[in-house]
Amino acid sequence: MPEKRVSRWYFGGIASCGAACCTHPLDLIKVHLQTQQEVKLRMTGMAVSVVRHQGVLALYSGLSASLCRQISYSMTRFAIYETVRDTMTSGNQGPIPFYQKVLLAAFGGLIGGFMGTPADMVNVRMQNDVKLPPQLRRNYAHVLDGLIRVWKEEGLRKLFSGATMASSRGAMVTVGQLSCYDQAKQLVLGTGDMSDNIATHFLASLIAGGCATVLCQPLDVMKTRLMNSKGEYRGVVHCLTDTARLGPLAFYKGLVPAGIRLIPHTVLTFVFLEQLRIHFGILSCDLRGSST
């Protein structure tokens, strides 16, 4: 009886942390572009400005918060999605329908987005700190310092500022990444022209990254503005109307760097995840084709 390996529940978080280490500079530039009140610099100009004024290491500002966010956010959404999906497809049952994948991914993303909100907020603030005047910088030493200071100085509720946007974005990006990856991989393998190897994983994750970028960019812009605010927004609706006054394209500010960051991040995450599954996953019998 052929055997296959199934991912462990925490593999998604580990894979996402590995991807975040590679793509963090692109994420930082994306945050800088989104928090501009007027479009003054493009992607390359922003990168050059950060390096010129702060040094190369400034591109990794907030890395500890980014890793903390992946552990809380990505580990939660991957654990929910993959655990439930594998349970539903156990035995002789084939792959679940795409609409069920979408619903499951949205649910996992909502929970994961909420769980990752505190670390995400500190991540945004630490990344944005490098472009502020010295007197306005928050100067968090690391993610734990940021979390503790926000709690003490601004209250527990502030740690979940932007949680609505973070959860909504988490749902959208998880739909784009996890459900679209699963479906794309299923379709590619269904052609019979490619096997379950790194080329298939790369192609499927490339498709998933493009879908996730388009789906989540408007929510990503609003989430960044809410988390980086100092009280100028009364809530989500106020942020929505204020951003809308800048024109429809304001919701897609930083789309190119977002895609340049999210697509490689998605590709690396799934490539790492599949390698973890292949080499360290849980062995299980593939019962498809058996009569029991």
Report on this model:
The structure is a single chain. The protein has 292 residues and is mainly α. 68% of the residues lie in helices and 3% in strands. The chain is built from ten helices and two strands; from the N terminus they run βααααααααααβ. α8 crosses α10. The longest helix has 31 residues. The C terminus is likely disordered.
Summarize the structure.
This protein is mostly helical and 292 residues long.
Set down the secondary structure blueprint.
Blueprint: E1 3-6, H1 11-34, H2 43-54, H3 63-88, H4 98-115, H5 117-129, H6 143-154, H7 163-190, H8 198-228, H9 236-244, H10 255-280, E2 282-285
Antiparallel strand pairs: 1-2
Query: Strand-and-helix sequence, N→C?
Result: EHHHHHHHHHHE
Rg estimate, integer Å: 20 Å
Mean pLDDT: 86
H/I helix tally? 10
Quick one: how many beta strands? Answer: 2
Query: What is the structural class?
Result: mainly alpha
Major β-sheet profile: 2 strands, antiparallel
Spatial order of the strands forming the largest sheet: 1-2
* Strand proportion: under 5%
**Any idea what the shape is?**
globular
Percent range of helical residues: 55-70%
Distance between the termini: 12 Å
Which regions contain 5 or more consecutive residues with pLDDT less than 50? 286-292
